[in-house]
Structure prediction request, 235 residues.
Amino acid sequence: QVQLVESGGGLVKPEGSLRLSCAASGFTFSDYYMSWIRQAPGKGLEWISYISFTGSTIYYADSVKGRFTISRDNAKNSLYLQMNTLRAEDTAVYYCARGGRHCGGGSCFWFDPWGQGTLVTVSS
Amino acid sequence: QSALTQPASVSGSPGQSITISCTGTSSDVGAYNYVSWYQQHPGKAPKLIIYDVSDRPSGVSYRFSGSKSGNTASLTISGLQAEDEADYYCNSYTSSSTPYVFGTGTKVTVL
Prediction:
């Protein structure tokens, strides 16, 4: 079945860095745009980035632009999020999700499925 | 890009129908038929229940339906069941520099 599994979360100090990974299985990874979405504790969802099939097209939310970098390795069926200069307000559960604009010749302006999430805590 | 506006909470009795609104602008909800809805139970990842305004993914109950009028999208849950108690979020593609925006979220309580 289609599955996404995030890893790499943890406790990091302000101004620190962290790299999240998302392992995909059960579908042709290279046929889908992929996204990262986060949720601060007790708060709503915030879309933060998507990447195209080959990584040639990337978009970020203004809140993370210049600090976060999304990437993918289609040979490894993996999605990544490099997070630098972390702030307390970046504390959240980070989800990877399939979708974002295009998929296998069609459009995928939705996110499905989502991984279980990985918690990032930014605190001194 | 501001979040789409949803009511904080909606409640109903089992068997009733409820509707959750999602109000945006002419740059997001009003501009595209790319509104999706997600259901999130406590401690769980969100689940897609409606995409492209009114389409239902395979396996999602027919009791969930979506619509849109102008800058406002709506999710209707008919025949409310205890398992429908969850948080619901809308999402829309936008023409801004941030391509997607979520709604503020609605907590549905089954009385």
Q: What stands out?
A: The radius of gyration of chain B is 13 Å.
